[in-house]
Amino acid sequence: MPTLSIVGLGPSDAALLTLGSLERLERARRVVVCSTPPALVEHLKSRGVKIEPAPFDAAALLRGVGEAVAAAASYAADGDAAIGVPGHPLIDFPGLPHLLRELAQRGVDVDIVPGVPRSALSAAASVPLLPLPPVAIHHSWEELVEIMTRLRACCPWDREQTHESLLPYLVEEAHEVVEAVDERDPKKLYEELGDLLLQIVFHSQIAAERGQFTVADVIDALANKMIRRHPHVFGDASISTSQEQMRSWELIKTQEAAIKHRESLLDGIPKSLPSLLGSQRIQEKAATVGFDWPRAEGVVDKLDEEVRELHVAVDSGETAHIREELGDVLFTVVNLARRLGVDAEAALRAANAKFRERFASMERMAGGGATALAGRSLEDLDVLWKRAKDHEAGQVP
Fold first, then answer.
1. Between the CA atoms of 192, 197, 200 and 204, what dihedral angle is there, to the nearest 10 degrees?
2. Does 173 lie in the same domain as 69?
3. CA atoms within 13 A on the CB side of 57
4. From CA 288, how far away is CA 342, in angstroms rounded?
5. Can you tell me whether residue 31 is helix, strand or coil?
6. Does residue 337 surpass a pLDDT of 70?
7. In total, how many domains does the chain have?
8. SS3 for 112?
9. Within a domain: 246
10. Are residues 10 and 86 in the same domain?
């Protein structure tokens, strides 16, 4: 009965190839390897390993594609052989269960030889590039890291980018995610989330090349932070409301080394945030220490007070005074939105969208085109605006 050795090759680096894997490959009469970089193949051949071309699609085998699995089983049934796979066969070979079932049906014994797992993404990001398959059922996280590594090595544009040059794209992609959520378009949302994820992997790869950190460090830091800041989920703390969670979150943050140096609770809010969003975040932070209106009615009264002060400023005609009082009005409106459980940024986006649609409806009613409303009197524009509102409400065809 033939035996197939499925041998783990580690993270594609000869220095991480185990002695057990190397010995098994050296003893094998026939050897094929899957998705192995040329440098490692040459190293194995220099050690006397008899590597031959694979009579099946190696990348498809790793994914468990039926045709490739059947071809690999036929290869194994012809006599003792070994197949080298990336990482550890039990961890990094998704198609292993499919191959084992096929081998069992053909009466082929199996010997699995462990290797260093490729789950250490820092290693996966720094090893020589692996050849990517032309077609895949589903790409893995490791492949995404490898794709980014290849882009930085082979694409002139990607190679020229820096953390600073990528910032406009990061901001743009974040806004496109927001737009996809507002449009309630799942297909667009997953595409835009992918574009945003690319920016994270891109920045991580640049840092890895500089020896600063890898995407593995990003993931570790995030996972540790989520565990640390949710003691009621991963520990024995008791938290029953979202308000309690917010207070707990801020308290835990103040105890973290990266934040202890801050002079103010508000120092963690980026100054580059849009002013409306920044205002809401400032007020949310202040509320975590109890600096907040007990009831929404108090904010309404404060808004009335600020509007009266704005009237006084307008009567004075002093631009600086008007700007200051108008800012107070806007700040108080955001506070009211927060107390009512409304995201002020989302509310204003919705109002903007509503205005754009009504204005476009006015233009269509006036004959269409960007100049359709030019030269019309304010009375005409008011009539068109009312018709657009009635049309929106379904009161006119």
1. -140
2. no
3. 16
4. 17
5. strand
6. yes
7. 4
8. strand
9. no
10. yes
Q: Is residue 147 part of a domain?
A: no
Query: In the structure, what pLDDT confidence band is assigned to residue 390 with cuts at 50, 70 and 90?
Result: confident
- Listing DSSP states for 336-362 in one string gives HHHHTT--HHHHHHHHHHHHHHHHHHH
Does residue 99 share a domain with residue 13? Answer: yes
Does the residue 236 lie in any domain? no
* Full strand arrangement of the beta sheet holding 3-8: 31-33, 81-85, 3-8, 109-113
- Regarding pTM above 0.85, the answer is no
8 DSSP β-pair partners:
85
pLDDT of residue 241: 75
Q: Which domain holds residue 387?
A: 345-392
Cβ distance 259 to 253 under 8 Å?
A: yes
Tokens at 68, concatenated: 């490739």
Q: Is the pLDDT at 323 greater than 80, yes or no?
A: yes
189, two tokens: 């949302």
Question: What does 182-224 look like in DSSP terms, one character per residue?
Answer: HTT-HHHHHHHHHHHHHHHHHHHHHHHHTTS--HHHHHHHHHH
* pLDDT value of position 209: 83
Q: Residue 73's pLDDT band (boundaries 50, 70, 90)?
A: very high
CATH number at residue 270: 1.10.287.1080
Q: What is the DSSP track for 255-288?
A: TSHHHHT-SSGGGGS-TTS-HHHHHHHHHHHHHT
